[in-house]
Every structure is written in C-alpha cells, then in structure tokens.
Write a structure and sequence with these properties.
The structure is a homotetramer. With about 130 residues, the first copy, chain A, is an all-alpha fold. Chain A has one domain: MazG-like (Helix Hairpins), CATH 1.10.287. The first copy, chain A, contains six helices and no strands. The interface between A and B is large, with 70 and 70 residues.
Chain lengths: ~130, ~130, ~130, ~130
C-alpha cells in the first residue's frame, strides 16, 4: 500500500496479518472454480449467513453464560467453527475488495481514540455523538 | 497454545496473526472501563450491527458493481471503515472467548477440503450435503 | 391463494394480514421507479441492514434492560423506527417473492408444534434435535 | 398514540394486522414455559439467526435468479420456511416490546414520503441525505 521508501524503524508494526490466510482461501476457491461466485455482494451475504449461525449459539444465553461458551462442552466446537467461518469470509471479502485490513484497522483505531476520549467515555457505552 | 516441544520445521506456519490487534483493543477497552460490557453475547451483537452497516453499502449494487466498491469514490471510505469495524469486533470476540483464530481457521479449512473435494465441487455452489 | 370452494366455517382464520401494507409499499416504490432495485437478493440485504440497526440498540443492554427499551425515552423512538423498517422490508420481500406470509406462518407454527412437544420442550431452549 | 376522540370513519384503516399471530405465539411460548427466555435482547438475536438462514438461500444467486427463488423446486420450501421464522420472531419481538407495528409502520411510511420526495428520488437509490 505504501510505495515510499521508509526505514524499517519508522514503520508501524502490523496489528494483524491475514496474508497467508487470504492466499490459502484464494487457492481453495481457484481449485474449485469458485472465484466466479466471489463478488463482494455475494461474499458479504455469505458472511451474514455465517454470523447468523454464530449468533444462534448465543441467543438464549445470559451474558454471563456467554463468557464460557467456548469452554462449555455443548457449545465449544460450534463457537470455534462459526468463528472460523466468519473469519474466512471476512478475510476473503477484504481480499477481493483489495482492502488492506491492517491499514484499515489501524486508521479506525486512531479515529476511535479521537471519538471516544478516555475521560468522557469511561464506564458507559453511549455512542460518541451522545457523550 | 501448544506446549509440546516441536522442531520448527514440523510446525505449520500461521495463517493469520491477530495478537497485536487483540492486545490493542484490550488496552483500548481497559482504559475506558469497557471490559464490563464485552460479554460475548454483547460483542456478537455489536459485530452484527457493524456487519449490517457493511451490508447496507452493497444492498442496491449489482454483483459487478460491488467488485469496485472499495475503489469507487462514493463508497471506498465507507467500505474500508466498516470492514475495520467488523474485524475489530470479531478479533475482540475471539479474544474474550479465548479462541485461537489461527487454529480454528486452520481446522476449518482442513474440514472444508474434505467436505468439498475438488472433483465434485468444481464450478457450482451447492452445499456439501447436496454435492 | 386457495381456489377451491370451501364453506366459511371450514376456513382457518388468518393469523396475519399484510395486504394493505404490501400494496402501500408497492405504490411507494412504483412512484419512485424503485421496483427495478427490488430483487429479492437486494431486499434481503436491505432487511439485514435494518435489522443491524435494531440490534445496535440492544447490544450493550442487559436482557432485563431490553424489556423496557420501547418505553425508555432514550431508545423508544429508535426501537419503533427500526421495527417499522424491518417490517416494511420483510413484507416487501415476501410480496416480491410471491409468498403468502399468512399461509407460510401457519404451516410453520404447525410444524413447530410437532417439533417441540409441550412435555419435552417445557422450560428449556434446546433445539428440537437435542430434546 | 392518539388520545383525542375520533369517530370511526375518521380513523385510518390498518396497514397490517398481526394480533392473531402475536396471540398464537404467546400461547405457544406460555405452554412451553419459554416466556422467560423471550427478552427483547434474546429475541432480536433469534431474529438475526433466522434472517441469516434466509440470506444463505440467496447468497450465490444473481439478482435475477433470486426473483424466482420461491418458485424454484430447490429453494421454494426453504424460502417459505425462513420467511415464516423471521416473521414469527419479528411479531413476537414487537409484542414483547409493546410496540404497535401497524402504528409504527404507518408513521415510518409517512416519514419516508417526506424524506424521499417523488421528484428527487425517482430512479435512483441514494440515501435521502445524498439526494
């Protein structure tokens, strides 16, 4: 994303690295001739469907019960599986769109730090425009 | 995650690395005393809300139009922002649940390779149980 | 929907009636030349986006707090608005698909009564295949 | 919403009527002692899960293919079932919240007519603040 030359010590460290996963999914799709189906519009729907399955796991739990969902025998496997599915489609979507998730996330966190100053935001969850 | 000793050449390389992002979000939440709100049940809803905003960007586009959404002046910024929001909540959710996304994704890809053999899955999008 | 002649007392009463709303939305869309955008694929995405806005209202609330959300001054208006948006897109989607919601719902409730017998389902929320 | 006395002929006709369905669901839940689980926070998640299943049906279809989804043998049953599930949870959610869907929808349509004047909105899908 950045074509200017910069010394290594000036670069910010990455917050996340999804390159290997993006490449693995691309290869998987290519082998099955599925790239044709992977328009962003379709992928964001696939992501919605997988997230729906994740939501279903938590829907009747109390907030406290949900904290143990990945350790409870009845739900651990499902939680892990659905988190994986959501992650796979999210990384695929970003790749097809040509979005650098690391840069996007970095910018968003910087923006959030401005929108939610520590002093004003502490201890409640009002939206930034209601702080 | 793996406490057994293994020679480097036996270890599989990571597919994704979200550790630095998870730590940054944790710090952000802690500074604002927001950890109390971050039950998985709540976070999966926050993820749903952010995904809804991403979906809205694509809802009236054709599949072809959606391919350029991250480059079109009218939508590029929004696409990048919403992808970042979804990523942040997803990584936070996995961290709070104690799920290693890299391991979960690796297992899921291995499972998918079995569920969707190249020969049977090529060129169509039927679910594995309808192949 | 039913072209066979049947005595009134044999017909089941309707569970819901969305005809007037479906007609009002159709008129609204037609006046703005929006029918072209109303493919089911697009409408289900619009429905997802609106539901995301509804979910956002509840994401940080406890279950108990959520019970009063339509009466709390801070959220009553938003809850009502987003419920309306979801309803409008749902009714529009069914209309465009040619699905009779009343008949679909009636069939589903009958199915649910079989899947969740009172004796077995009482007091817990396991899925029917885990009863 | 309207506390003034008005003659019946002045009242606007209902746009939708979900009373019988709401009563049927209430009875169904009560018989199974499920009312305890039906906090709005939980119900909006259940609605999300069901909508996710509806979205999955359409995710790989083109917009044109989606128009026939309720008539295509492969998908007709699923489309009808998932629409019913979404409707059931939506009506239940509104009932538990004490929201009159008919009044909410009526107000929203009136608002939309102001936000999207026919002359300005015709033939495109920009959001009202971008008209």
């Amino acid at each position: 994303m950045n074509s200017t030359v910069s010394a290594p010590e000036e670069r910010q460290p990455r917050l996340l690295d999804v390159d290997a996963l993006a490449a693995a999914i691309e290869r998987f799709a290519r082998e099955r001739d599925w790239v044709q189906f992977h328009a962003p519009k379709n992928l964001v729907m696939a992501l919605t469907g997988e997230l729906g399955e994740l939501v279903e796991i938590f829907q009747w739990m109390s907030a406290d019960e949900s904290r143990d969902a990945a350790r409870a025998p009845a739900t651990a496997r499902a939680v892990r599986d659905e988190l994986a599915d959501v992650t796979i489609y999210l990384v695929r979507l970003a790749a097809v769109l040509g979005v650098d998730l690391d840069a996007a996330v970095r910018d968003k966190l910087a923006l959030n730090a401005v929108k939610y100053p520590v002093e004003k935001a502490r201890g409640h969850n009002r939206k930034y425009d209601a702080l």
